[in-house]
Design goal:
elongated, 7 strands, 11% strand, two-stranded antiparallel sheet, single chain
Length: 454
């Protein structure tokens, strides 16, 4: 086998495609698998001057029934070459970053750069841009061999490397969110990114060898905490692959050393202090998610007394969850399966399912931490307390027992404030605005029912 490296302009490769002098061998090639958005982004990359990886072509000559046929077979680069050919032939137009970035998902810094090809079919481009694309040269490895087994072996070797997964691609993105997640989740092969000790010591994670799983979890928790900090009662976001990609794109200007970054880091500092004793099994991803969300709320607006109870409360929760049965509804631990466990297995990265789990988690954890009191028991219920009560009662009105939306939620002092009722979790009940007891008799009746209930 001999290999020569050549540069060829795109216009020549398009002609080879059109004449079918350059084809993919269907015996071992996988066909066209790139989506149209992927093809659009490739063409956009060419216009921006990004260089493509080496393309491997097999120069093939064979004789059939006295005739000689010559041509090129694509060994590696079929998706890239097909995308280029399809665009020049007029099969699709490019993304317009100004009007279609919900689909294109270009990073913010690219949105500020000129994009005269945006939204254009090839035929609609100014002649200067058409020529620019057609004259762009690609680097080719021209393989000379008469042994087809050698070519197949080369194809297998080229495909044998492990492709970058989603988090490994994010690690290469520009911007502040990339820097923050690398610091938090860790990339130990780079000395400046050892990662937070919580992941290694409390979760038993191995960020140096898990191909980004720890950093992905760090990014997911970051997304949830940013959402929680943006507004009390805000819906929790999805944390699937596309949502985390969007987190990186939307936060290119995130300051790892700014207020939001420090708050998230401090949540993990506190979790590490509370749970580093090694007296429980290693936490899983969903354990970490809900512990971080709860600690983020408790660390502000509550007296520190809850910290002494957090570890034992978590141990009780994990014990009950471990013993929960999906089959026996009569079991007193069944709710741990139906309200939490099952939601860790089906679409566990969907915001609505995370919220479902978190409602149950907060309720059970608070029941194990009776010394959870607001810092100032005299003031009105803080936003943090209102949210905890909202989840503790599983979004059910204490008067009519129907679902309460956040916009309709109010918190009622069971024992009236002006009669000495404290602004505490124990003296609070979630109600609809329309159900909120107002008259003296309504307040008295509610307090009597609540006392019997609790």
């Amino acid at each position: 086998m001999k290999t020569c490296i050549e540069k060829r302009p795109i216009k020549e490769l398009v002609k080879l495609f059109d004449s079918r002098m350059m084809i993919a061998n269907p015996e071992y090639q996988r066909g066209i698998v790139w989506s149209e958005p992927q093809q659009k982004r490739l063409i956009d990359s060419l216009f921006r001057g990004f260089k493509l990886p080496l393309i491997y072509l097999h120069e093939r000559k064979e004789k059939v029934a006295g005739f000689t046929r010559e041509g090129l077979e694509i060994i590696d680069g079929q998706q890239r070459l097909t995308a280029i050919h399809r665009y020049v032939e007029g099969s699709f137009r490019l993304f317009d970053p100004q009007t279609e970035n919900d689909r294109a998902k270009f990073p913010r810094f690219l949105l500020e750069k000129p994009c005269p090809w945006g939204g254009c079919f090839f035929r609609d481009l100014p002649s200067q841009l058409q020529e620019q694309l057609l004259d762009t040269t690609l680097l080719l490895a021209m393989i000379h061999s008469e042994d087809t087994n050698e070519i197949r072996d080369l194809f297998v070797r080229l495909q044998a490397g492990s492709a970058l997964n989603a988090q490994e691609r994010r690690d290469a993105m520009p911007g502040g969110m990339t820097e923050f997640v690398l610091r938090l989740g860790g990339k130990p092969e780079m000395p400046r990114y050892p990662g937070h000790d919580f992941f290694k010591e409390v979760m038993g994670a191995r960020p140096g060898s898990d191909r980004g799983k720890t950093r992905q979890l760090a990014a997911q928790v970051t997304s949830l905490l940013l959402s929680q900090q943006s507004g009390v009662g805000a819906a929790l976001p999805d944390i699937n692959a596309s949502a985390i990609d969007h987190l990186y794109y939307e936060n290119l200007d995130f300051d790892p050393d700014g207020q939001e970054g420090r708050r998230i880091w401090e949540v993990f500092d506190l979790l590490y202090i509370l749970l580093r004793d090694g007296n429980r099994p290693r936490l899983r991803g969903h354990d970490t998610i809900h512990a971080a969300l709860l600690v983020n709320r408790l660390r502000e607006g509550f007296t520190p007394s809850w910290r002494e109870q957090f570890a034992s409360a978590l141990d009780a929760f994990l014990f009950n969850l471990k013993g929960a049965s999906r089959a026996d509804e009569a079991d007193d631990k069944y709710l741990y399966w139906s309200q939490y466990g099952t939601w860790t297995r089906v679409n566990s990265d969907r915001g609505e399912n995370i919220s479902q789990r978190h409602s149950f988690y907060v309720s059970e954890m608070l029941s194990e931490m009776p010394e959870t009191h607001p810092t100032d028991p005299i003031r009105q219920f803080s936003a943090e307390i209102r949210e905890l009560i909202y989840f503790r009662q599983r979004k059910k009105c204490a008067v009519c027992n129907s679902d309460v939306s956040w916009s309709e939620a109010e918190v009622h002092h069971v024992k009236e404030h002006h009669k000495g009722g404290r602004t505490t979790l124990e003296n609070a009940a979630l109600v609809h605005k329309s159900c909120h007891p107002r008259s003296r008799q309504e307040v008295s009746n509610f307090a009597e029912r609540w006392t019997k209930k609790t």
